[in-house]
Design brief:
Chains A, B: GO terms for molecular function: DNA-binding transcription factor activity; transcription cis-regulatory region binding. The structure is a homodimer. Chain A is elongated and about 60 Å long. Helix content of chain A is 71%, strand content 0%. The longest helix of chain A is centred in the middle third of the chain and has 27 residues. In chain A, helix 1 packs across helix 6 and helix 5 runs antiparallel to helix 7.
Chain lengths: 199, 199
Amino acid sequence: MADSPDRSDSDPDEEIMRATYRALREHGYADLTVKRIADEYGKSTAAIHYHYDTKDNLLAAFLDYVLGRFKDSVHEVETTDPEQRLELLLDQLLVELEDHRDLLIAMLEMRSQAPYKETFSERFQQNDEYVRYLLETVIAQGIEAGAFAEVDPDHVARALMTIVDGARTREVVLEGDALATARQTADEYVTAVLLEDEP
Amino acid sequence: MADSPDRSDSDPDEEIMRATYRALREHGYADLTVKRIADEYGKSTAAIHYHYDTKDNLLAAFLDYVLGRFKDSVHEVETTDPEQRLELLLDQLLVELEDHRDLLIAMLEMRSQAPYKETFSERFQQNDEYVRYLLETVIAQGIEAGAFAEVDPDHVARALMTIVDGARTREVVLEGDALATARQTADEYVTAVLLEDEP
């Protein structure tokens, strides 16, 4: 996710989302206030509340926004070769996050609140379903094309998301190269499970 | 981790740790107060503060306690056959948690605070190093015995912990069978990477 994409600044929702992103990166979720988002937005808290009545609603919209940005970036993956497409998806899920540790920190804080906040829980569930749908689709296409072994696409998508979510948690909680380790692990898993009959 | 192990009730530290565990299960990390721990302990907050000067110090001690309990349970794994021992370790890291979703929720909340709290960060780092050491040791023994392929034990241990941490996060954030999916994923990974030369 780029800091300052060249988009029209006339859309208040887009501007508020970008202000929320900057405030989350700077303060983290626990110390996030509408005041701090308003400061990043350059307007009053009333200007924020005009669009979003509570902080939780704003953050729910932010999670939708993050998913939307992710969807946009996925649409840029133009290759239709299943093996290559799967690699590029895994790159986007893991490698692209290397410069966004502060966003990963804020997202993990929000994820940890999912059991208490239905609005968060729904979004994380939807995001996960969407990404698994992308993975399942490319896996099913690879099986169809004879490029992948005849696996259960649902299980393999869940397995890959387990590796992705493990990396995202470890990148926040522990020192070290969690994303690179996970990228290698995902490759080993794909090679073993999907390409097992390949030469 | 059992709720009420049959231990001596005369050790105040042990009693406070068990009270902390119950308070965390009931209220979660964000709503945890020393008062609520004291209520579980059946004594005043002063009685807690006599042993732990701050809530964070108490929680740091709690993380040490959880690791201690985990170490105790690992010592019960008596088999020395590398393949079997690795399976049992993975069971303890994944399957044993199925009845402890409320503990997983509280732990994920604490993990998400690691970037802000050095005392938490240090403990999670130590826990991870300890578990990886156990995994590395059994992998190295398996290689030595000719039961496992000649892999890098450090990488394989990190890969397995990525799967474990992914499952723990997904179990909290998402619906579904995250621990069972991860257990199967870990098995597939072990079979592919460690047992690749086996018949």
